[in-house]
Amino acid sequence: MAEKLEGAARAEALTTLGESGWAEVDGRDAIHKTFVFKNFTRAFGWMTQVAIVAEKMDHHPEWSNVYKTVEVTLATHDVDGLSALDVTLAAKMDRLAS
Amino acid sequence: MAEKLEGAARAEALTTLGESGWAEVDGRDAIHKTFVFKNFTRAFGWMTQVAIVAEKMDHHPEWSNVYKTVEVTLATHDVDGLSALDVTLAAKMDRLAS
């Protein structure tokens, strides 16, 4: 079961995530990042890689795609906020996009 | 080059699309439909099939996914509204989801 990120652990995670472009969502305990690729095939190819990772983690993103752009929001439903699952998935997304 | 759907052709297309759950978007010449699948794998599997079709058509959806739900908006940028491309892609999406 996921645990809600709080206090120093939360602050540290947000600082690290912030360095790669993740930002807190206004009015909601969640993080957001916009990924821009070269074209649709690259964008959707990345989404496919992430989808397999997410399914294996049993932790899924909220995301939208318009051509080469993918907007991602991460949060953990069970804790109604951020958990280590979000930090892990965010890092995997960054790695797959790099 | 795509041509904007207008008049009787537009009305007829919207009627047919309406029968399978596509609706006009408020304040924008576009159509929208919510697809709900059994789980994430089914939802993303369908998106993958659609992505290949869309890339072949060089006509891409605006879509968002949260777990088993996919929200789709279709419009044709070149005509700033609906064209036959949207009608074709909508029908292909329906067929792949059925």
From TrEMBL, chains A, B:
Q: Which domain of life is it from?
A: Bacteria
Matching entries from Pfam families are given as: Pterin_4a
| CDD domains referenced in this protein's UniProt entry, alphabetically | PCD_DCoH_subfamily_b
What EC number(s) does its UniProt record assign?
4.2.1.96
Q: Which InterPro entries match?
A: PCD_sf, Pterin_deHydtase
Gene Ontology terms: biological process = tetrahydrobiopterin biosynthetic process
One GO term in the molecular function aspect is: 4-alpha-hydroxytetrahydrobiopterin dehydratase activity
User: What UniProt keywords apply to this chain's record, in alphabetical order?
Assistant: Lyase
Catalyses which reaction(s)? (4aS,6R)-4a-hydroxy-L-erythro-5,6,7,8-tetrahydrobiopterin = (6R)-L-erythro-6,7-dihydrobiopterin + H2O
Kindly give the PANTHER family that the UniProt entry links to this protein: PTERIN-4-ALPHA-CARBINOLAMINE DEHYDRATASE
Give the protein family: Belongs to the pterin-4-alpha-carbinolamine dehydratase family.
Name of protein: Putative pterin-4-alpha-carbinolamine dehydratase
Species: Gymnodinialimonas phycosphaerae
